[in-house]
Amino acid sequence: MRIAINTGGGDAPGLNAAIRAATLSAISRGWEVYGLKNGYGSLFTDKPFIPLTADRVKGITMQGGTILGAANRGNPFEMPYQKADGSWAAEDRSDEVVRMLKKKKIKAVVAIGGDGSMYIANQLVKKGVHVVGVPKTIDNDIFGCDITLGFDTAVTTATEAIDKVTTTAEAHQRIMVVEVMGRYAGWIGLHAGLSASADIVLIPELPFSIDVIVDKVRQIEKSGKKHVIVVVAEGATEEGGKRFVRGKKIGQAELLGGVGEYLEKELAKRTGKESRSLVLGHLQRGGSPTTYDRLISLRFGAAAIRSLENGDFNKLVVMRDNRIQRVPISEVAGKIKTVPADSDTVLTALDVGISFGNGDA
Amino acid sequence: MRIAINTGGGDAPGLNAAIRAATLSAISRGWEVYGLKNGYGSLFTDKPFIPLTADRVKGITMQGGTILGAANRGNPFEMPYQKADGSWAAEDRSDEVVRMLKKKKIKAVVAIGGDGSMYIANQLVKKGVHVVGVPKTIDNDIFGCDITLGFDTAVTTATEAIDKVTTTAEAHQRIMVVEVMGRYAGWIGLHAGLSASADIVLIPELPFSIDVIVDKVRQIEKSGKKHVIVVVAEGATEEGGKRFVRGKKIGQAELLGGVGEYLEKELAKRTGKESRSLVLGHLQRGGSPTTYDRLISLRFGAAAIRSLENGDFNKLVVMRDNRIQRVPISEVAGKIKTVPADSDTVLTALDVGISFGNGDA
Amino acid sequence: MRIAINTGGGDAPGLNAAIRAATLSAISRGWEVYGLKNGYGSLFTDKPFIPLTADRVKGITMQGGTILGAANRGNPFEMPYQKADGSWAAEDRSDEVVRMLKKKKIKAVVAIGGDGSMYIANQLVKKGVHVVGVPKTIDNDIFGCDITLGFDTAVTTATEAIDKVTTTAEAHQRIMVVEVMGRYAGWIGLHAGLSASADIVLIPELPFSIDVIVDKVRQIEKSGKKHVIVVVAEGATEEGGKRFVRGKKIGQAELLGGVGEYLEKELAKRTGKESRSLVLGHLQRGGSPTTYDRLISLRFGAAAIRSLENGDFNKLVVMRDNRIQRVPISEVAGKIKTVPADSDTVLTALDVGISFGNGDA
Amino acid sequence: MRIAINTGGGDAPGLNAAIRAATLSAISRGWEVYGLKNGYGSLFTDKPFIPLTADRVKGITMQGGTILGAANRGNPFEMPYQKADGSWAAEDRSDEVVRMLKKKKIKAVVAIGGDGSMYIANQLVKKGVHVVGVPKTIDNDIFGCDITLGFDTAVTTATEAIDKVTTTAEAHQRIMVVEVMGRYAGWIGLHAGLSASADIVLIPELPFSIDVIVDKVRQIEKSGKKHVIVVVAEGATEEGGKRFVRGKKIGQAELLGGVGEYLEKELAKRTGKESRSLVLGHLQRGGSPTTYDRLISLRFGAAAIRSLENGDFNKLVVMRDNRIQRVPISEVAGKIKTVPADSDTVLTALDVGISFGNGDA
Which residue, B45, C180, C357, D261, has most beta carbons within 10 Å? Predict the structure, then answer.
């Protein structure tokens, strides 16, 4: 049996651990393993396949990034190409992809990726490709999966960054706004904000009101605490959609960079307190995976091979109810898992005094 | 309403986070909170109670240890006392404990602890004390609970230690034996060994054979790898109980310190390879909790208060199936959760080539 | 004897360690110690003095920030005040400061700070106040001092951040621009860029040319490496001063945020490579000090007290030639220590292939 | 020109950074570089030389260990061999080593190592081999050199370990004894003990008295602090040499493992306090180098090549007075740099209340 491993979408810590476990698990069954270099687009290049051997995956569990390269041209259904006039367009080259996998005698693809990758995987499945998915995204927003690979490291990086700026904010008695990733779901913001003892956490699921935030700042000051830590997901939106739609500014806010910078300026103006903001950005995607991410990535990678061995195709291996399970890719493709407003983590945040800027406090 | 918080047993990272969340959650409900200083034994001292206020628990989420002090005299049913002749004995003073809690008008106790603490809690329940338990142990062996507070940090500390000695073992082409905690359950050894890419992992659940380990070492050398990493839980036992019973040596092994030192000597002798061993010991109990442990500790602490609020007494709040749930303390007291030999984590370890020293390979 | 400790300027990791060592050293000599809360401006408030005892400084060596608070109104010679019309102005209140220190019977001040603080200290000295300075700045640009407290931690934070984004840059084959602190001196950029294996390092001392950088990027690509790491100090300037004067943009560049964002946009345009930028900002000021910073801070703090004990006033204690020495504050006030172009660190950077974007390569 | 790089003695973090800088610096001058695999002993094997190219040293700055392998048979003057009867002996094969280096046209050797390596280097110099030394040892005890590569990381590892066990010691009100490396010099013990706020630091340079330590423990308890942290170098000796000579036990102490275990038992017995000990051992040799060690290693490696380029042979490149300098290997070989009792670091330790167990307090 010969299989291929593909990593799609943005970087996430744990990719290499998943690649290593899948490779070693397959080899231990006597299979051959190839990696698709830089995603499906590689199939239109000279050297699309990286032979994956025990030697090639030695020592990579703790390495950030991916030895396969991230997929800049990763969607076979919308493969970009440059037109004669220099402009760019996209075309469906999925049939070629299917043909080339067949020609190389690839029996199945382990597709490691997020919601975008699962959407693509589901379309490939319809064209007859055997796929097993591995859930990867620092945003933790893949439907049907309790936790994704990369999330714990991203939360840890964000928490450590908030810890760092907190001591400075306290010394200078400032408002410090830290913008974290999360366009559609607030998992990173909620978890990092809670574990770093933030005062205010703003996430896409719970639209915020500047008035409520200003009230909270005043209440904090009244209690004798002179610094305020605000953690905001890039996709947090203002109540009534007045200024932000999915983190994109409209109206006056257009002149500003992002929701973090907007809050810095607005809170300084309204509260009179010195304010600073920090955008963590790509810091959250990189670095050596935490122990938790190493483990979950290894377990996902090995589980994908067991699924293939069982002939159980077109499934996403997931962590659900603390067990590795399999769900049909078709069931999760195109959906997003957001933070439930009544989850115990949200309740815990409220109980320790965190405000979501939405009138809760 | 007035409640008390008690921390029992050995130190674990996350205790302070749990104390903080429980305290703030209770205060936000208008309750009063006291901490028992150094466990139930404090009740026989001058100042048994530490008033827990928002100020007192400020900034402690990330601190290791416990602001309440660990319980050196923590079992009211077997409270040690010194006899006239200077020797020590123990007596049941539980009735006094119950009386003093009543006198102080403590309506309920949040008991943060491991299996020992839950055993005690269960006995107190029978005497009419309202208790809600929070599962704490770096060993992760509390029955009925998928994960305990302190475990993720212990695994991370062990993983980082194994990472460190691995580069040296490789440079010197040595066998390196790392002894980790785990008297009855191999969770730390399994998780740390897997995430740090160990070659051999020995845990109490799977008795090992020296012959099998020696074979594995030879096989590794044949493959061209010159260093070998062995992770062994302190409670790992030799097949047939020849030399170890629960980590205690019998016969010849008596002359040696622990199972780690035994393996170092024995493997050096049998394989001719240079060997070293390292006992991580108390390193694993201390330090700032990981983000994962901060979160789970905060969630447990807040959940305990919600349980009290609901009048749902004599329960252990647990993480089960990725949700905070409650189980009767009586159902879990006196039981241990060990590593199932067919868990996907064990399968993953086997698939990436780890040997458990028991003929698996 | 009674002394006061003042911390001036921006936050830096190690401040608390210096405060602890100075406090304990003074107490062990039977002196009394007070901290000035939030700098000299505190003297115009109700409670300007924080009594510093052994208990108060317990366990703070590893804490970031400063228990005294940073000085937002720290310059007695230009103390800000609000005029009747609501606008702000500044006035010289140094005589009052001198009078109040005398009234409190403060015999000497330990002034922990950077070049600004030393400038102020030097003026106070002229008014008869006994001062001993401790060199603090993450920028490492205090004249006459080989290394300042806070620098090693800032370099470590920057290095770890560059490490993190490097794996992502490699996976995505991108140019990654990381903007670090350093308005007038490139110490952080040079040290972090070298230790994190950057390709291009831009510092204020060596004005850069975009053309040279673009050439270097092309040369890197030709060598087969697809990602490029650029580390730029916020104060780096473009050759001929065309677009940047001390990190401030002029002309077209005005529309952009900082030199990092400028480079991201310009390099993307000119090289056709995908580019991203990250501004580390306040991350570099905070967090727990490294072991190196803990030690140097403790040594500085204790050395300041020995200087006072010897009646050796108006000196800055410095690390010079690997020994704690003392230099007259008047000799260092108003000067900056920049990176010498022929230092062995610069030569090392060139030898390992780093370009300074100035035609060196 | 063709050169060889040799790494001698035990592992130390930073070796790979030094190898990388030396390799790239040499290549940039058009030289050829070979690494000696596992030390000089490699010359008697089939494949003694590892060609060192830019590709081979890519990304290794942050890796612990050494890509050349540590030298188990590293002394050409006492090369071990097995006699006919199976026993081991040693012979002088240095002439062969010299001959083989010549045959391979190696013009000079960069010898990265500690005092043992410098002793060997000095003997090779006498036989006409051109050598430039790079000072490497976690113990920081190379004569003539302010700081060696590997030391900062070892101190950091020890400090973090002491931090971890301190929270547990505090919770349990225990004496915690941490044994660190340092057979002849107490640099690691002094620096880690000071930066981790230990109470008692025992180093080889200052023989200790158990009576003095017991007095200090009682004094600490009287002050209200219930836990005591003791940091002891493995080579610390008891005053009068009663029980320890260079960490080796004599008399009763023979039954115990090391000085750490001896202190644990003795202090428990004499003070009645619960005690624990931890031997950090090989933890201190491994792991990713700190930023400080990365930098100093890179600078040393590049400086060695500049020395060769200048025809300045038989020198050790050192960090002295904050500058890279060169000293004749003959001047440093066979000597040890110990902690001066009047160094400002020792004075700082005394000032913050640390006892050296020798009647200082």
Answer: C180
To the nearest whole number, what is the mean pLDDT of chain D? 92
Please tell me if residue C295 touches chain D, with a CB cutoff of 8 Å.
yes
Q: Does B299 touch chain A (CB under 8 A)?
A: yes
- Interface contact B168-D286, CB threshold 8 A: yes
CA angle B179, B180, B185 (to 5 degrees): 120
Of B196, B302, B352, the CB nearest to A21: B352
In three state form, how does the secondary structure of chain B look? CEEEEEECCCCCCCHHHHHHHHHHHHHHCCCEEEEECCCHHHHHCCCCEEECCCCCCCCCCCCCCCCCCCCCCCCHHHEEEECCCCCEEEECCHHHHHHHHHHCCCCEEEEEECHHHHHHHHHHHHCCCCEEEEEECCCCCECCCCCCECHHHHHHHHHHHHHHHHHHHHHHCCEEEEEECCCCCCHHHHHHHHHCCCCEEECCCCCECHHHHHHHHHHHHHCCCCCEEEEEECCCCEHHHCCEECCEECHHHHHCCCHHHHHHHHHHHHHCCCEEEEECHHHHHCCCCCHHHHHHHHHHHHHHHHHHHCCCCCEEEEEECCEEEEEEHHHHCCCECCCCCCCHHHHHHHHCCCECCCCCC
- Shortest CB distance from C282 goes to which of A65, A160, A165? A165
- Active-site option among A92, A95, A115, A139: A139
Q: Nearest-CA distance from A259 to chain B in Å? A: 25
Contact, B148 vs B135, CB < 8 A? yes
3-state secondary structure (DSSP) of residue A55: coil
Cα gap B329→D181, rounded to integer Å: 46
Chain D interface includes B282 (CB < 8 A)? yes
Work out the minimum CA distance from B291 to partner chain A, whole angstroms: 6
Check CB contact under 8 Å for D11 and B173: no
- Give the model confidence (pLDDT) of C223-237 as tens digits: 999 999 999 999 999
pTM of the model: 0.95
**CB proximity D307 to C under 8 Å:** no
DSSP assignment of C250-277 equals: -GGGGGSSSHHHHHHHHHHHHH---EEE
Q: Residue D278: which of B38, B69, B283 has the nearest Cβ?
A: B283
Mean pLDDT of D140-168: 96
pLDDT digits (tens, 9 = 90+) for D178-225: 999 999 999 999 999 999 999 999 999 999 999 999 999 999 999 999
Distance (Å) from the alpha carbon of D294 to chain B's nearest alpha carbon: 16
ipTM, two decimals, is: 0.94
According to the model, what pLDDT value does residue A324 have? 96
Distance from the B294 Cα atom to the nearest Cα atom in chain A, whole angstroms: 6
The single residue of B11, B115, B139, B293 carrying the catalytic annotation is: B139
pLDDT tens per residue across span C241-287: 666 665 566 554 554 578 999 999 999 999 999 999 999 999 999 99
C97-150 per-position pLDDT tens digit: 999 999 999 999 999 999 889 999 999 999 999 999 999 999 999 999 999 999
State whether residue B305 sits within 8 Å of chain A by CB.
Answer: yes
Question: Nearest chain D Cα to B285, which residue?
Answer: D168
